[in-house]
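User: C-alpha cells in, sequence out, please.
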C-alpha cells in the first residue's frame, strides 16, 4: 500500500509539473478563488461589525425604555433614574428628549429632529458626543447646539456659526453651532441637532419626562435576561434590547453576507471548472499512456487515484497560497482602512480564523470534486482502444 501511494504521488507530480503554463493557470485560479472567499467575507464582517458597533455606540443603549404605545413621553423620569441608580447591573443611563423643529441659516431652512440630552450622562452610555467632525462638544449649561454633518452641509453651517431653531411649541431662538457631528448613520446625520436637555426642557415647557432612556449594562450580552427584571423594577412595559433595536440592520447585514457568498461561489466555480476541464483534457491526451499503464498491470483504481491526486496537489498548492494571500489582504485593510463615501466612514476588513478554515475546506473540497469525473473517465479507458488510439 505505501508503495502504491508513492507511485501515485510520483506519476501525479510528474504530470502536473510537466506543463508549466497549465500548472500556473490552474494554480492561480484556485489561489484567487480561495483568497476571494477570505477577503470578501472578511470585508463583509468588517462592514457589519462597524454598522453594529457604530449604532450601539452612538444611538442606543443595551436596554432602551420607551413610552407606552399610546403615550408620547415617559413620565416620572426622576423616580426612574433613582431606581436605576440602585440597580447593581446598571452601569449607566441617559434620558433623551426627541421632538421636531426647523433649523434655519439665512434663507435656508430644513425640518429637523431635536435631540435633547444630558452630556454627562450620555458620555457614560454612548460615544455620540465624541463623533465630532469639527468644533467641540456641548455641556449641560450650554446655550449651544451640535448639528449633524449632512444637515450642516445642506444649511452651509460650520462650527462657530449662528443658526435659528424653531421648536414645535412655536418658540424660536438663535443658537451658536458649537460642533458638527458625524455618526455614519445616514438618517441621523441628515436630520438631527443635539442640544442640552435642560435647554430643550425650557423651550418646550417639559419637565421630568423623556422620549427614551438608554441603559448601559455591565454585560451587554445579559440584556435579554435582564429585560424582564428591569420592566418589573421600573414598572414599564415598552423595553427593547440592543439586539431588538438593530434587528433590521442584522437582517440587512445577513443579506450582504449572502451576496458575498454568491461572489465567492462564482470565483470558486470558475476555478473548479478550470481544474476539471484541464484534467479532463489531460486524460484525453494521455489515453494511449493510460492504456499502456493498464496493459502493464495498472488497475482502474490506480489510474483513478493518479488523477484524483493531481487535483489534490493543485488544491494543496493553490489553497495554501490563497490562504496566505487572503490573510495578507485583510491585514492590509486593517492597517489601511478605505473611505466609504456612502457610509461616510473608514471601513476595514476584519480577520477571524473561521475565514481560513471555511475557505480552506470549501476550496479544497471543490477542487477534489472537480477532478472526480476526469479521474473516473481515465479509470474506465479501454486498454485495446487506448493502445490503438481509438
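Assistant: Sequence out:
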Amino acid at each position: 500500500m505505501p508503495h502504491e501511494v508513492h507511485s501515485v504521488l510520483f506519476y501525479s507530480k510528474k504530470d502536473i509539473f510537466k506543463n508549466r503554463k497549465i500548472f500556473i493557470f490552474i494554480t492561480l485560479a484556485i489561489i484567487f478563488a480561495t483568497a476571494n472567499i477570505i477577503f470578501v467575507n472578511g470585508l463583509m464582517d468588517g462592514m457589519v461589525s462597524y454598522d453594529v458597533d457604530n449604532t450601539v455606540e452612538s444611538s442606543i443603549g443595551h436596554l432602551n425604555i420607551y413610552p407606552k404605545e399610546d403615550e408620547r413621553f415617559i413620565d416620572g423620569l426622576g423616580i426612574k433614574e433613582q431606581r436605576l441608580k440602585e440597580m447593581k447591573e446598571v452601569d449607566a443611563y441617559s434620558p433623551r428628549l426627541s421632538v421636531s423643529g426647523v433649523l434655519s441659516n439665512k434663507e435656508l431652512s430644513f425640518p429637523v429632529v431635536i435631540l435633547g440630552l444630558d452630556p454627562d450622562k450620555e458620555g457614560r452610555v454612548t460615544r455620540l458626543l465624541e463623533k465630532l467632525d469639527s468644533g467641540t462638544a456641548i455641556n449641560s449649561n450650554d446655550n449651544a447646539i451640535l448639528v449633524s454633518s449632512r444637515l450642516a452641509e445642506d444649511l452651509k453651517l460650520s462650527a462657530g456659526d449662528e443658526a435659528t431653531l424653531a421648536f414645535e411649541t412655536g418658540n424660536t431662538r438663535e443658537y451658536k453651532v458649537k460642533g458638527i457631528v458625524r455618526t455614519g448613520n445616514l438618517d441621523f446625520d441628515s436630520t438631527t441637532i443635539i442640544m442640552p436637555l435642560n435647554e430643550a426642557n425650557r423651550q418646550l415647557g417639559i419637565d421630568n419626562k423623556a422620549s427614551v432612556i438608554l441603559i448601559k449594562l455591565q454585560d451587554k450580552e445579559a440584556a435579554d435576561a435582564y429585560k424582564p427584571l428591569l420592566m418589573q423594577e421600573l414598572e414599564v412595559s415598552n423595553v427593547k434590547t440592543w439586539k431588538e433595536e438593530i434587528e433590521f440592520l442584522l437582517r440587512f447585514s445577513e443579506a450582504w453576507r449572502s451576496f458575498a457568498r454568491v461572489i465567492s461561489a462564482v470565483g470558486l466555480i470558475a476555478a473548479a471548472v478550470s481544474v476539471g476541464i484541464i484534467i479532463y483534457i489531460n486524460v484525453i491526451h494521455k489515453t494511449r499512456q493510460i492504456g499502456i499503464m493498464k496493459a502493464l498491470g495498472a488497475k482502474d483504481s490506480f489510474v483513478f487515484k493518479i488523477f484524483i491526486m493531481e487535483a489534490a496537489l493543485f488544491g494543496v498548492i493553490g489553497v495554501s497560497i490563497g490562504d496566505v494571500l487572503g490573510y495578507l489582504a485583510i491585514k492590509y485593510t486593517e492597517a489601511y482602512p478605505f473611505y466609504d463615501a456612502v457610509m461616510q466612514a473608514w471601513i476595514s476588513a476584519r480577520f477571524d480564523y473561521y475565514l481560513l478554515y471555511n475557505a480552506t475546506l470549501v476550496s479544497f473540497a471543490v477542487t477534489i470534486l472537480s477532478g472526480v469525473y476526469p479521474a473516473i473517465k481515465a479509470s474506465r479507458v479501454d486498454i485495446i482502444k487506448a493502445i490503438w488510439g481509438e
